[in-house]
Amino acid sequence: MRVAVIQQTNTADLQANLDHSLSQVREAAAQGAELVLLQELHRSLYFCQTEDTRVFDLAEPIPGPSTDTLGALAKELGIVIVGSLFEKRATGLYHNTAVVLEKDGSLAGIYRKMHIPDDPGFYEKFYFTPGDADFNDGRSGFSPIETSVGKLGLLVCWDQWYPEAARLMALAGADLLLYPTAIGWDRTDEQDEQKRQLDAWITIQRAHAVANGLPVLVANRTGFEQSPADDSGIQFWGNSFICGPQGEFLAQADSDNEQVLLADVDLQRSESVRRIWPYLRDRRVDAYGDLRKRYRD
């Protein structure tokens, strides 16, 4: 199966951002992609650099205008599209939510970001409520979304640092792990520190592929976005990538350029890899109870 990851820059013009994303998706489909992943919060600039109540005006319901637009394109092109939206679930209740549009244009499912950061320049706790540990119908919040191209283990950005999240998706039968992302450097960081951060980000996600025997797709944005408060900002580091079930790179973007990244993923390889590296077989589930504790004193 051919898959695509879209790495793009963003501006303050919401419609221009959406139009650009749609154009990139069309390009991916023209090159044979059956599954296309967009980056985190692709409609807008990354607005979490500051805390501003006016930003809540950007949020929208799901289903809503963006899912309608993405669904129409998915149906036209006959592909599966994964988008990332600022969801208004109710008045005063907002989520960072990934959406999956099926080939027939229907909304196949959603995933609400579970781990919410709160760091300088990434003030997400001000805007986003974490996803529910369990949906109202009893399903785990870490549930893959069934589609015509496989079960998608969809996670979002800060989730990518947590092996527990990837493992739970794998244990629920995910065929691929997907991470829409918005991450970058503080320009004041030393060059060596920037390299360490980027290497850590790539390594942890390749490790999820290895530990679970699953392909991983990562879509990050690129370009500099200035803070609304001052002259600081985030230099998004791009480097979107697609890797196979042993962490092997199938495709990788650079730091500074927009790109439609494509790769052919063989889902049958997961079966072969898991036969020779049977991590799930050898897990000591009887000995992991303390993982549910905040800390082992």
Q: Which strand order do you get reading across the main beta sheet?
A: 5-4-3-2-1-17
Number of distinct helices: 6
Kindly state the number of beta strands. Answer: 17
Percentage beta strand: 25-35%
What structural class do helix, strand and pairing data support? Answer: alpha+beta
Largest sheet: 6 strands, mixed
C-alpha end-to-end distance:
47 Å
> Low-confidence stretches at least 5 residues in length (pLDDT < 50)?
none
Give the H and E element order: EHEHEEEEEEEHEEHEEEEEEHH
Shape: globular
**Radius of gyration over all CA atoms, rounded:** 18 Å
Level of helix content?
10-25%
Mean pLDDT: 97
Topology of this structure?
Blueprint: E1 2-7, H1 14-30, E2 35-37, H2 65-77, E3 80-90, E4 93-101, E5 107-112, E6 118-119, E7 122-123, E8 145-147, E9 150-154, H3 163-171, E10 176-180, E11 184-185, H4 191-212, E12 216-219, E13 222-226, E14 233-237, E15 241-243, E16 249-252, E17 259-264, H5 268-276, H6 279-282
Parallel strand pairs: 1-2, 2-3, 9-10, 10-12
Antiparallel strand pairs: 1-17, 3-4, 4-5, 6-7, 8-9, 11-14, 12-15, 13-14, 15-16
Helix pairs in contact: 3-4
Features:
297 residues, alpha+beta, 6-stranded mixed β-sheet, 17 strands, 27% strand
Question: Would you kindly provide a brief summary of this structure?
Answer:
With 297 residues, the chain is α+β, with helices and mostly antiparallel strands. The protein has helices spanning 14-30, 65-77, 163-171, 191-212, 268-276, 279-282; strands at 2-7, 35-37, 80-90, 93-101, 107-112, 118-119, 122-123, 145-147, 150-154, 176-180, 184-185, 216-219, 222-226, 233-237, 241-243, 249-252, 259-264. 42% of the residues are buried.
